[in-house]
Amino acid sequence: MSPSVAKGLLNLRELDIGNCQSMEEVITEGEGVMTLFPLLEKLNLTELPKLGHFFLTENALKFPFLKKVEIYDCPKMKTFVQHGISVSLESDDEVNVMFNSKVFCPNLEKLHISMAQSIMARGLLNLRSLEIKDCHSMEKVIREEEQQGEGIMTLFPLLEELKLQTLPKLGHFFLTENALKFSNMEYL
């Protein structure tokens, strides 16, 4: 779908995309900082074997009301927003972060990922539920470079629920010398 079509879906609150065997991206290349689906609250991507990314752009993408994202059986998906083809090798780590600095989801509360390669996330300060399961090649959830400061760290300040299941290659959730603080954790 083109960015102009996506922008026209002003009242869309839930988007479910599934069982599309040849889909490689949901939104084709766009320019500028974009707010697509301005009222979108829930996004489900299911059984998309060739999906590599949701959107290809050089700039940022905003989802101001997005609260829940579920990604299930998208084995080639490494990032939510893919930088354009002019990406330099120095920024390759940024490209492989599922939710990187190109995605702004200030209200995201639930992130559930199953059967994907990566979820290394950044800036999900309102996240309350994080579920990762059946990701057989995932080695880490949060990259070491994302550490800031020393002492006690609050990585996800509102996180209440963390589920990690069937992750045979997971070496660590977050490798740090600092103590992690999960003040609101209710379920682990």
Automatic annotation (TrEMBL):
Gene3D superfamilies for this protein: Ribonuclease Inhibitor (3.80.10.10)
InterPro entries: At4g27190-like_LRR, LRR_dom_sf, Plant_NBS-LRR
Domain Disease resistance protein At4g27190-like leucine-rich repeats: 4-85, 111-176
Coiled-coil positions: none
Keywords, alphabetical: Plant defense
Record keyword Transcription present: no
The protein's name: Phosphoprotein phosphatase
